[in-house]
Design brief:
CATH class of one domain: Alpha Beta
Number of helices: 11
Largest sheet: 7 strands, parallel
Distance between the termini: 42 Å
Shape: globular
Radius of gyration: 19 Å
Structural class: alpha/beta
CATH architecture of one domain: 3-Layer(aba) Sandwich
CATH superfamily of one domain: NAD(P)-binding Rossmann-like Domain
Number of strands: 14
Order of helices and strands: EHEHEHEHHEHEEHEEEHEEHEEHH
Helix content: 40-55%
Length: 339
């Protein structure tokens, strides 16, 4: 039996849009639920244009029981759950909002799934659950020690899903701990669209190249890394999208809960990323060094071998390709979906 209709919560967001493209390309029907608090309806139109297929869209919050009742009136075979607040720094300032939205929203979703007999979910977790890594690369068996409220919410939902699966043998949940998504769909029609000043390195660099930001601050030049700048595992968003579809297909064939890393298994420093983007864009990225930020770590990259063993997934697209695709998106959409 093959999954037919997939509910994607937070589907209009950065990773959600790319995952919906992949789902539609694999023959699934998609229902998208989004409250558009940090996304745009235009993104869904762009996905439909790329895929040449329609998406059933429900506007509303996953915590709204009336909305969820509407969503589950149609048959749903499985769920991919992205809907969440996602900025680490913001979570430190507004922890209760993050617990209410990320944990409370997941509880409401599982309640609605239970009422309708939907037993399979892929959860958008994060490598932030590991906190400061003891060793590299990071395996799924590494200690769970998040150091900010955002990471805590992801760890809490993972635990909740484990308990949900333990309570009923028909339940399946896969928590995908992914590292640093970058890039965009090759069409340039969809990509990352921060509403404010970008929190992450890659969209900040693209905005410098397009003229929206003046200069990048590189936080620390004295880390114990080859060039002194922080090292991260940067994963093309289309590889990440493919990983979600693979996980969903895997979930239909097994029971229980699994936590799986999605990353390239390689680290790229801030200066290496700047150099790669300059080659891809032909633009000079101006930067200055600042002091280390509290809570930052020197290096972090994944051991992605479990995903390879479980469903033959591995990252195929390079950092250079992600830079080229991300620059295409930014050039074609200097103001994101507001253009």
């Amino acid at each position: 039996m093959t999954l037919k209709t997939v509910l994607v919560t937070g589907g209009a967001g950065y990773i959600g849009t790319h995952t919906m493209v992949e789902l539609l390309g694999q023959g699934y029907e998609v229902v998208c639920l989004d409250n558009f608090s940090n996304s745009s309806p235009e993104a869904i139109k762009r996905v439909e244009k790329i895929a040449g297929k329609k998406i059933t869209t429900v506007t509303g919050d996953v915590r709204d029981r009336e909305v969820m009742s509407r969503v589950f009136k149609r048959p749903i075979d499985g769920v991919i759950h992205f809907a969440a607040l996602k900025a680490v720094g913001d979570s430190v300032k507004r922890p209760i909002d993050y617990y209410g939205n990320n944990v409370g929203g997941s509880i409401a979703l599982l309640d609605a799934m239970h009422e309708r007999g939907v037993h399979r979910i892929v959860f958008s977790s994060s490598a932030t659950v590991y906190g400061v890594p003891e060793k590299l690369p990071i395996e799924e068996s590494a200690p769970i020690r998040p150091i900010n409220p955002y990471g805590q919410t992801k760890a809490m939902v993972e635990q909740m899903l484990l308990d949900w699966c333990m309570a009923d043998a028909t339940h399946t949940a896969i928590s995908l701990r992914y590292f640093n998504p970058i890039g965009a769909h090759e069409s340039g029609l969809i990509g990352e669209d921060p509403h404010d000043v970008p929190n992450n390195l890659f969209p900040f660099i693209t905005q410098i190249a397009i003229g929206k930001q003046a200069q990048l601050t590189v936080w620390g030049d004295d880390w114990p890394t080859p060039d002194g700048t922080g090292v991260r595992d940067y994963l093309h968003v289309m590889d990440l999208a493919r990983g979600h579809v693979n996980a969903l297909e895997h979930a239909f064939g097994i029971g229980g809960h699994a936590t799986v890393n999605l990353g390239t298994g390689n680290g790229t420093s801030v200066l290496q990323m700047i150099a790669a983007f300059e080659v891809a864009s032909g633009k000079k990225i101006t930067y200055q060094f600042g002091p280390r930020r509290a809570g930052d770590v020197a290096a972090c990259w994944a051991d992605p071998s479990l995903a390879q063993r479980l469903w033959q997934w591995q990252a195929k697209l390079s950092v250079e390709r992600a830079c080229a695709d991300g620059w295409r998106w930014q050039q074609q959409n200097p103001n994101g979906y507001r253009d």
